[in-house]
Amino acid sequence: MMGETMALTAAVAFAKDNGDRFVDELKALLRIPSVSTAPEHVGDVRRAAEFCAAELTRIGLEHVRLIETSTADRAGYPLVYADWLHIPGKPTVLCYGHYDVQPAEPLDEWKSPPFEPEIRGENIYARGAVDDKGQMWMHVKALEALMVAGGGTLPVNVRVILEGEEEVGGEGIAAFVREHGEQLKADVALVSDTELFADGLPTLCVGLRGMIYTEIEARGPRTDLHSGMYGGAAPNPFVALAQIIAKLKDEDGKILVPGLYEKVQKPTDDELKAWKALPFDEEHYRETEVGSTVLTGEPGFSVMERTWARPTLEVHGMPGGFIGAGAKTVIPAKATAKVSLRLVPNMTPAETFAQLKGFVESIRPKGIVIEVRMLHSGDPIVVSTDNEFVRAATEAMRTVFGKETVFVRGGGSIPIVGDFVRHLKIPTVMMGFGLPDDNLHAPNEKFHLPNFHRGIESIIRWLQAVGA
Amino acid sequence: MMGETMALTAAVAFAKDNGDRFVDELKALLRIPSVSTAPEHVGDVRRAAEFCAAELTRIGLEHVRLIETSTADRAGYPLVYADWLHIPGKPTVLCYGHYDVQPAEPLDEWKSPPFEPEIRGENIYARGAVDDKGQMWMHVKALEALMVAGGGTLPVNVRVILEGEEEVGGEGIAAFVREHGEQLKADVALVSDTELFADGLPTLCVGLRGMIYTEIEARGPRTDLHSGMYGGAAPNPFVALAQIIAKLKDEDGKILVPGLYEKVQKPTDDELKAWKALPFDEEHYRETEVGSTVLTGEPGFSVMERTWARPTLEVHGMPGGFIGAGAKTVIPAKATAKVSLRLVPNMTPAETFAQLKGFVESIRPKGIVIEVRMLHSGDPIVVSTDNEFVRAATEAMRTVFGKETVFVRGGGSIPIVGDFVRHLKIPTVMMGFGLPDDNLHAPNEKFHLPNFHRGIESIIRWLQAVGA
């Protein structure tokens, strides 16, 4: 025990002494535009994988390798695997992260270029700063600190698995977990892809919404037509999509797809009570995070309930037709709406998609041919707070932040957490260090550097505790 | 009179003998990608102007010059002017055309590249083949034939005015006509930017719909947001636009903007009767031109009435958000709908825009900030058939085609025709030689070459008759 305490102290000190170098390394990783949705970045995504693999090797992990993945319709991006498994009888932790990032568009809204990380104040700005390169790097750096402090040993068995397709649906890792789960055998997973409820407030995420991401394609005329000559006779796919979308969700934010709310499981009374106790100023949230004139969403539910525990439907873009500057008078042959739904516990992607598809087809406007397709999906998740790993995380964060840790849910989806439950039969500790205003998936994404360093220390303390 | 008949015969023969060369010249013009909506083609648009000016000079017109234009917010494309005014006492004809073209997108639907003209069968395929380079070239070639046949003289006074901004609203020529009308003093204008009702059927267009082209911009959150984290609290601009559009037009095609139909002037009973007599097979039209499962539009009106004499509303594209392949889970800060309305006689662009804007603002969804802006507009037009120029055109086409000429309207808009009425106080003969399936503004635009040659002969005969 004495040795463990000394090693812990040494690891924390090492992380503190090397903090600037850790940030420099992170910058190098952020400079790689590993946008997994964009065909032109194929080489960059792979380069990010190799960057991570090289560092895992350098810090002393073993069996470091790239695991190639592929799906039915395309070659995938590799998983990066590493392990250190030299303490039989101790638990094994599976550290998960992803090295791919969202597209950076719209580029003209960035104050500094998305792939030239810039530190302004205490924040580092870049695409992927917090989602998830910065948070993934905390894992790597915590392992490095423990390895140095332990003279080449870790206090716990560790496997690392990193993916490069989180932002495009994560099919590769899902298939690997499903088919080769024995290669990831562990007792608990650690995922740092969530956020603190408020700056300085240690937060564990114990629930996530699931999702289905779909495209609704509407086809009208065989070819693009001139709207002067054919307006009045030809069906317009954009007008049809507008009519459909207006029937999917009412102006209060209630989803109108029949049956959609039937299986929705309510949060427990205890959970609702705890959410009410969280420090939350709705007006401040509206002004600083959302920035709209008013908040929207289902009447009768709090913001937390609406974003964590209620299904929602959003439209992300409507490709097709003419979107350049100026005027083109076309009735396009087709138009598409990218529509996603967030799911909450007891809803399933398959059933929700079937409900959506059936309803959209039933309200198909005259003259329009409709195709509804699912691009990817993820199950909703609730993690029990009643296990030793969550308790150790609660304690580790309390120590680092000097405050009681709170439990929240997330409105987003991390499908891999559901895969870990289903195929590896292990719980996941979701210990994330982002902030609500970190601009995830948006221009000017950032990571608050003090949280990067607190995150490393929290993970060091948690890994030490899990191995104690 | 004998001399005139001989000159006419010689001009027609010259056009026949030189038909292949005329097509080669047209090909050269079509190779210039003079897309006036696209900033990257600025040099090409000007090159097309210079190409036309050089040819007008070569065939013997005088005072050939480029007239620079500009609007409040950008430099414009030049007008090309030329004249030949040596027969005092004879009428002056103003030949109008435009040398700019629509964007060629979507490129992957073209069977041959849009700016590499290709003849397949009896058609020439290229962007601008019929709209309007091919039709404008008929004017130039008719003038060349008459000039050669007349030994350096024409049978009538002629001014030529070509513009390079027809596809972006034609503000430059509109301003020039308004402010320098005396430089275009004429008795009648000739515009060839319309089509035959059916192949082989000589057709004069005596009415056009007007239009307003608008953008409806919806703003929700201050910045793009993650739909997982904020779905349920943040307003979504695409959903808002869908809700708005669904309230602008019902599923039968009726426009729901209050007051919009109030001023609509019905066609005369004679006109409706003539339209009923036109050779028109609705099922053939649906299948070969529109290609949709059914036709749409206001119940109780024929296709001709719906496309020529009723206002319509169309959505052309909805820029904003994420439109790439795959999934991006964003609630965009803003989205825009490109929405145009076609106007019929007695409606005015200003009043229609005010009605649209007022209604859209009145149905603005919660949390959304709306801006409605007009990009450009044109008046609806009806031309009297009771004048000598229209009668001469009727006769010229009857001679060339060997059939009685029919009178139709067009569903599209040619704003310059309204400007000629308002500022030059002259009627316009709309003698066009396109075909209904020429794919105007769409991929695989074409011009049926026999109609190119018939058009040249019709214009030769008409100019000769006007000067007789």
UniProtKB/TrEMBL annotation, chains A, B:
<dbReference type="InterPro" id="IPR051458">
    <property type="entry name" value="Cyt/Met_Dipeptidase"/>
</dbReference>
<dbReference type="InterPro" id="IPR002933">
    <property type="entry name" value="Peptidase_M20"/>
</dbReference>
<dbReference type="InterPro" id="IPR011650">
    <property type="entry name" value="Peptidase_M20_dimer"/>
</dbReference>
<keyword id="KW-0479">Metal-binding</keyword>
<dbReference type="GO" id="GO:0008233">
    <property type="term" value="F:peptidase activity"/>
</dbReference>
<dbReference type="GO" id="GO:0046872">
    <property type="term" value="F:metal ion binding"/>
</dbReference>
<keyword id="KW-0645">Protease</keyword>
<dbReference type="Pfam" id="PF01546">
    <property type="entry name" value="Peptidase_M20"/>
</dbReference>
<protein>
    <submittedName>
        <fullName>Acetylornithine deacetylase</fullName>
    </submittedName>
</protein>
<dbReference type="Pfam" id="PF07687">
    <property type="entry name" value="M20_dimer"/>
</dbReference>
<dbReference type="GO" id="GO:0006508">
    <property type="term" value="P:proteolysis"/>
</dbReference>
<keyword id="KW-0378">Hydrolase</keyword>
<feature type="domain" description="Peptidase M20 dimerisation">
    <location>
        <begin position="207"/>
        <end position="365"/>
    </location>
</feature>
